Amino acid sequence: MTPKLTHTNPKILASGEGESHQLLTHTVVWKITTEDTNSRYAMFEMTDTVGGSAPAHKHPWEETFYILEGELDIQIGDRYETIGAGAVAHFPANMVHAFKIVSPVARVLIVVSPTIAEAFYREAGARITSFPPDPIVVQELCEKYNLQPQS
Q1: Pfam families from the xrefs (predicted)?
Q2: 29 FRET partner, CA 20 to 30 A, in 12, 35, 46, 146?
């Protein structure tokens, strides 16, 4: 049985458009939300500067990074690479991964699925308002969204 689509409004955003918020040092601009895709996936642009990173972790959603500008050191499992503009990195669900920006600025288009990821990024952006983040808030978010930091 084919699922019935409940949202069919087309969307066109110019460069720089979209709802934005901060998540630690990252600026997140939502391009496509779960509302736009009948809860199948979401897409956002992340911008940050040299040193911006996410330490090794895993979670139950997939992420695909398309590098628009700059360079990132990427870890996927035991594999480490530096990738730049035009490269793609796909992180399967529950696979350990990490990244660190190594260029002065990086812009990355990120697609996440399933869409519980959008809820995580939005709540983390709303609740983590200082750097370094409050470890109690981080622990609560990790438990709620099954995000598992790795050592």
Answers
A1: Cupin_2
A2: 146
Residue 50: pLDDT band with limits 50, 70, 90 = very high
Q: For the whole model, what pTM was predicted?
A: 0.90
Structural tokens at position 58: 């895993």
- In DSSP notation, 45-62 reads EEEEETT-EEEEEE-SSE
For tokens 């790795």, what's the residue? 150
CA atoms lying within 13 Å on the CB side of residue 65: 26
CA distance 37 to 5: 9
Count CA atoms within 13 Å of residue 27 on its CB side.
12
Between CA 89 and CA 51 the distance in angstroms is 19
Peptide bond into 3 cis (omega under 30): no
